Amino acid sequence: MLIRVRYQDNTYDMVKTWRLEEYIATGKISAFHRGNEWVTVSRGQVRHSGDTSYGGPERRRRENNLSRVA
After folding, report:
1. Tell me, what DSSP letter sits at residue 58?
2. Is the pLDDT of residue 63 over 90?
3. CA-closest candidate to residue 13, choices 24, 21, 4
4. From the centroid of its chain, how far is CA 37?
5. Looking at residue 69, what is its pLDDT?
6. DSSP single-letter state for residue 43
7. By three-state DSSP, how is residue 12 classified?
8. For residue 35, with 0-12 CB atoms within 10 Å meaning exposed, 13-18 middle and 19 or more buried, which class applies?
9. CA separation for the pair 34, 46 (Å, rounded)
10. Residue 11 has what pLDDT?
11. Fewer CB near the terminus (10 Å): N or C of the chain?
């Protein structure tokens, strides 16, 4: 899959998905197109495939999803 990116010099290109994280980490791009919007790398929320930590409550466990009758 190809992702549309904007480089630091304001030129545009299409890059392969697996290259996107590398380009973000090295500062080669200033923005990329995700869904229906442009995400600015320095300000946008960027997903990282290696980050698996989650600080919120566990909602997938079976005992948390049981129907409770009052």
Report:
1. -
2. no
3. 4
4. 12
5. 54
6. T
7. strand
8. exposed
9. 10
10. 96
11. C
Q: Which two tokens stand for residue 59?
A: 């909602």
Report pLDDT digits (tens) over 12-61. Answer: 999 998 899 899 989 999 999 998 999 998 754 555 555 556 566 666 65
pLDDT of 42 reads 78
Asked if residues 11 and 33 have their Cβ atoms less than 8 Å apart, the reply is no
Beta strand segments in the chain, E: 2-7, 12-16, 29-34, 37-40
Q: Is the pTM of this model over 0.85?
A: no
CB atoms within 10 A of CB 49: 9
Please state, as a whole number, how many other Cβ atoms lie within 10 Å of the Cβ of residue 9.
Answer: 7
Which pair of structure tokens corresponds to residue 65?
């999803």
